[in-house]
Automatic annotation (TrEMBL):
SMART domains linked: AAA
GO cellular component, one term: membrane
Protein name in UniProt: Iron ABC transporter ATP-binding protein
InterPro entries associated with the record: AAA+_ATPase, ABC_SmlMolc_Importer, ABC_transporter-like_ATP-bd, ABC_transporter-like_CS, ABC_transpr_FbpC, Mo/tungstate-bd_C_term_dom, P-loop_NTPase
SUPFAM superfamilies membership: MOP-like, P-loop containing nucleoside triphosphate hydrolases
Stretches of the chain forming a coiled coil according to its record: none
Keywords, comma-separated and alphabetical: ATP-binding, Cell membrane, Ion transport, Iron, Iron transport, Membrane, Nucleotide-binding, Transport
GO molecular function, one term: ATP hydrolysis activity
Length: 366
């Protein structure tokens, strides 16, 4: 089955069923599994209709948060509220089907022995047959699969299976949706279209949504806010631009781009580096810091001075972009730079670097 996918494969925009978006709130949630704390004092509040992307290393607890919200996982401390109602808390555990949360799993978890239509109506049994069929068909139409309703999931391409899983999760018009790595099984060609159209569907439904992803770029594209999770705790929550420009610590910064790191000490409100001075007004004199330089925007590269002299050690072309490694006297490792392609920049050539201190991050060492 072909996996080529275009926007035309999807149904008309603006036709997804609208939900009554709900507020979702985790307060100081603890979960211990197999004797190990998996969520620790985890708090997060989503306003109705908000899309939050959960980003974090493998094993940081992302899927556990979805399971907790959906009521598949019990908690050991804290509370979970939907609107003003506690659904998980001391002595309280509302059943999954009482929470009004739609789930979409990484592997889509489609029922192989049911047709597409039966897959979607499965979650609509409470509605009565006529309403269930109407709502299921509307969801299938929105994702462009209405003409395949009698087919079986194994006859669909990967992109179509994703669309079916999305239709199934939105068909009951849940006030809250949880998507666990919804695009991870799609290849790069497909991902952009599917991602954009899924986002359009989410906006149409108005559902409050948590999307788990490993991919920082995806989180920045999809999330109204990004929640960065580390060892079961919330490390930072912010908009994409805040979290990118003002990461809470070095580890958070490392999540969003590769970094060249320079160890130094603050003197008179600044840090002297082999690339020039960097202001560090928020750090006391004598503080040991890491200066983190991103490959994009931090350094201007010219083939003539002025600037700090360097030499191009390696270069890769990536369609209009140069990925360079430049050695600079005083730096242990070559610095990584991504910039617009320049034919004059060849391996072995001398270059001159100018630091843009406002793009450079400075973090106190632990
Ligand atoms: N039933 C269980 N018993 C014991 N440990 C578990 C259980 N389920 C999950 N864990 C552990 O809890 C931690 C968090 O798991 P979780 O699946 O929430 O992480 P994640 O951030 O979603 O990871 P990934 O990105 O790899 O999917 C992991 O260390 C995992 O091994």
């Amino acid at each position: 089955m072909s996996d080529s996918e275009t926007l035309e494969d999807w149904g008309p925009r603006g036709t997804a069923g609208v939900a009554f978006a709900a507020a979702l709130r985790f307060d100081a949630v603890d979960v211990t599994l197999g004797g190990r704390p998996v969520l620790r004092n985890f708090s997060l509040a989503l306003v109705p209709g908000e899309i939050v992307c959960l980003l974090g290393e493998s094993g940081s607890g992302k899927s556990t948060i979805l399971r907790v919200a959906a009521g598949i996982q019990r908690i050991d401390g804290g509370t979970v509220k939907i609107n003003d109602q506690i659904v998980s808390g001391p002595g309280i555990h509302a059943k999954p089907d009482r929470r009004g949360i739609g789930l979409m799993f990484q592997d889509f978890a489609l029922f192989p022995h049911l047709t597409l239509l039966q897959n979607v109506t499965f979650g609509l049994r409470k509605l009565g047959r006529t309403a269930a069929l109407a709502q299921a068909r509307q969801a299938l139409k929105r994702v462009g699969l209405d003409d395949r309703e009698a087919d079986y999931p194994h006859r669909l391409s990967g992109g179509q299976q994703q669309r079916l899983a999305l239709a199934r999760s939105i068909a009951p018009r849940p006030g809250i949706l949880m998507l666990d790595e919804p695009f991870s099984s799609l290849d790069a060609r497909l991902r952009e279209t599917v991602r954009n159209e899924t986002l359009a569907v989410l906006h149409e439904t108005h559902a409050t949504t948590i999307i788990v992803t490993h991919d920082p770029e995806e989180a920045m594209l999809l999330g109204d806010r990004i929640a960065l999770l580390r060892h079961g705790r919330l490390a930072q929550i912010d908009t994409a631009s805040e979290i990118y420009n003002r990461p809470v610590d070095l580890n958070a910064a490392r999540f969003f781009s590769p970094l060249s790191e320079i160890e130094a000490r603050v003197q008179a409100g600044r840090v002297e580096t082999p690339l020039g001075p960097v202001p560090a007004p928020r750090h006391a004199d004598g503080t040991a810091v890491t200066v983190a330089i991103r490959p994009i925007g931090s350094l201007d590269v010219a083939t003539e001075g002025p600037g700090i002299p360097g030499r191009v050690l390696a270069k890769r072309d990536a369609i209009g972009i140069d990925l360079c490694e430049v050695s600079v006297a005083g730096l242990e490792r070559p610095i990584q730079i991504r910039r617009r392609a320049d034919r004059n920049l060849v391996v072995g050539s001398d270059v001159f670097l100018t630091l843009n201190p406002e793009h450079v991050l400075v973090f106190a060492k632990d």
